Hints:
Blueprint: E1 8-11, E2 17-21, E3 46-49, E4 54-57, E5 63-66, E6 73-74, H1 86-96, E7 98-104, H2 113-118, E8 123-128
Parallel strand pairs: 1-6, 2-7
Antiparallel strand pairs: 1-2, 3-4, 4-5, 7-8
Amino acid sequence: MLLDPENTLFVRGATPVLLLADAPVHDALPPLNASDGAVPPCEGWSIVPRLTLCLVDGPGEHGLVVPALAAPVLGRADGGAASSGMADWCADAEQAGGAVVLSLDRMPEAFDWSALLSSGTARGGFMPALG
């Protein structure tokens, strides 16, 4: 499935984040239980971060493609470098060995990490990158 890039937000960081809104895989992803701030692995799922397309692959027929080059990228949430290009996000994902993928009903108005992790409505977790 192809996900509209307007329903995504790539966030740079030591462990990069991909936020998905209204994603067709939402119900297939595990509920996120990270109230302590530690994001669990998303068992059976992986991510292929590329400059033009980002693939989120799950078990069975579950998965989606994001036209990454057209998607918004937010600079580091941890206050680091302000660079906000997709190539930089991909480099972050390569260094981290994957990315946190969070699926929400709708895109939040502001990126608030603690609110996302404790919302009770987010699904997903850390997905390893495939080469």
